Amino acid sequence: MTVSTLASSVASPRKATAAILANTVLIVIALCFLLPLAWLVLASLDVKATYQTQIPEQLSLANFAAVFNPELTFLPLWNSLLLSGGAAVVTVLASVLAAYPLSRYTMRFNKPFMYGVLFGTCLPITAIMVPVYSLFVRLNLLDSIPATIFFMAATSLPMAIWMTKNFMDSVPVSLEEAAWVDGASAMNALRRIVVPLMRPGLSVVFIFVFIQAWGNFFVPFVLLLSPSKQPAAVSIYSFFGQYGAIAYGQLAAFSVLYSVPVILLYVLVSRGMGGSFTMSGAIKG
Amino acid sequence: MLPLAPAVVLLAIFLLGPVIWSFYGSFTDAALTGSSAQDPQWVGLDNYLTLFKDPVFPLSLWLTFVFVVASAIVGQNFLGLGIALLINRASKVVSAVVGTAVVAAWVLPEIVAAFVAYAYFSEDGTLNQVLAAAGMTGPNWLYSFPMLSIILANAWRGTAFSMMVYRAALNDVPVEVTEAAMIDGADGIKRLTWITIPMIKNSIATNLMLITLQTLSVFTLIWVMTAGGPGNESTTLPIMAFQEAFKFGDIGYGTAIATVMLLIGAAFSLVYIRALRPEKV
Q1: CATH code: domain of residue B253
Q2: Mind listing the pLDDT tens digit for each residue in B212-233?
Q3: Which of B1, B129, B278 shows the shortest C-beta gap to A52?
């Protein structure tokens, strides 16, 4: 107590200047980061939008109304939901199952496996869509939604296994031991005791994978060819190519509709987890 | 043992598969269409020989290097660390606003972020409006300064990650240590260089490596903003691989470029894993 009062009373005039300086610099940074986004919001509400950031003469929801139809918005968003939801479910299931033996049993290959997983986390897999494309051609998996889901799940699996194992390590073994004594199998103990206890951690993994898959453009852009199967990320790009040069307002409105779900999910997680959610399992491990 | 099976199968088919296929495919003349598409022939090192003679390849390597160093290691990393350091000294409202503003650019789907950046840097875009308000005429950024535009855009988009890593790391630095140094008369800069930075050096290493690998694979942002152009002035390796494969139809050649990228990524990851050697595996 004495230390901190001494420090603050001695340093207070300088601390005040430092605080003003910090506040000013941060406000400037915040403005720089928000400025590009202002265009998106204003243009979506402006029927006469251009690339300029301008206050709309008349606020209108006409842009939203124009894109609010099955072909332009609902189907692509449904496809996005299918892809990201599918990838997230597959990833969470596979990583819970994999994390259990890795976390609970000491096996000779645990260490090499986890190092391999860590290595997989680092590989720039999304940068090598060319060989992925030709592999999909060879396996006859091109333009298949399930195959794209499995590919997206596999690319997020290393990170997910890493996070899930760290979450699982913090669930005490003693509870399961009690269940084992009572005759529960390992799988039963996992399902009835471990998974319920690590529900917050698993929802972080789920949402983490979901947000990544929802925002992913390159993977579906290369692997899904029929417009009826393409997610919003890709349909928005074709829209940009066809009408974007004319209908900036609609492009912005479409972008807003597409972005809102992940923003809401992010807010949900960061409220629940106290901020830096992606770091909790992944980095500190 | 059995519960590992789904993960192992998935990883084997969809992660290890493409990696092995990448090496194999780079030795074939696979094409997008035509007879070489149905029945690719083994061509040995031909693709690599072409690659090392291709004047675009060294340019592309250099541009990728510049992109990673300028936008990730300098831009995202220092900006993220700076914000994380300042945010503890700022008022609650300001830190909440900055945190939200920085994270907003990062949470957006990448294609939306790319459109926003495109609009911002385009000739009649927001940046030039700001310059005009200050009495200057801005250039057509995307055409005249393509690299600068994509570097700034990627720094804008990715700083949130570094900021979050460093905020978490700084929270773990015990207050007593910095206070003790303060009593001993160390000023702010001394405390930062001799106490704070050494104490978070693991986080710095992790962050540098992760943002390097993320930036190495950036495709969408560049594709939407400049598509590698004008000419090849902003053609980083992912763009080059994509164009060779899908624009010029030479899948084998594109795969050889992808393989080079994989090797670069693998080298970085090995250095990182060795340097960090996570104890809790």
Answers
A1: 1.10.3720.10
A2: 988 998 999 999 999 887 888 8
A3: B129
A95 within 8 A of A164, measured Cβ to Cβ: yes
Residue B128 makes CB contacts below 8 A (sequence gap 6+) with: B137, B138, B141
Give the largest CA-CA distance in chain A: 73
Q: Which A residues in the span 137-196 are in contact with B, Cβ-Cβ below 8 Å?
A: 137-138, 150-151, 153-155, 157-158, 161, 166, 169, 187, 190
- Rounded CA separation A232/B269 (Å): 32
pTM: 0.87
Q: Exposed, middle or buried by CB within 10 Å (0-12, 13-18, 19+), for A54?
A: middle
Block residue for tokens 């909440």: B96
Q: Where do the H-state alpha helices sit in chain A?
A: 2-44, 62-67, 75-104, 110-122, 129-138, 145-169, 174-181, 186-189, 195-197, 199-215, 218-223, 232-242, 248-273, 277-282
> d(Cα B121, Cα B146) in Å, to the nearest integer?
10
CA gap A171, A192 in Å, rounded: 13
Cβ distance of A154 and B167 shorter than 8 Å: no
Identify whether B280 is part of a domain: no
* Joined tokens for residue A230: 């393409």
Residue A22 token pair = 């910090």
Interface touch A217/B111, C-beta < 8 Å? yes
Q: State which residue of chain A sits closest to B215, comparing Cα positions.
A: A124
**Of residues B22, B104, B258, nearest to A37 (C-beta):** B104
In the prediction, which pLDDT does B279 show?
56
Provide the residue range defining the domain that includes B238.
43-274
Distance from CA of B217 to the nearest CA of A (A): 5
Alpha carbon distance B220, A282 (integer Å): 25
The gap from C-alpha A170 to its chain's centroid, in whole angstroms, comes to 23
Question: Residue B173: what pLDDT?
Answer: 82
Domains of chain A, each with CATH number or no CATH: 65-282 (1.10.3720.10)
Q: Which of A155, A218, A262 lies at the smallest CB-CB distance from B107?
A: A262
**Residues with Cβ within 8 Å of residue B55, at least 6 apart in sequence:** none
Q: Within a domain: residue B32?
A: no
By Cβ distance, the residue of A18, A97, A120 closest to B11 is A120
A274, pLDDT greater than 80: no
- Contact (Cβ atoms closer than 8 angstroms) between residue B75 and residue B151: yes
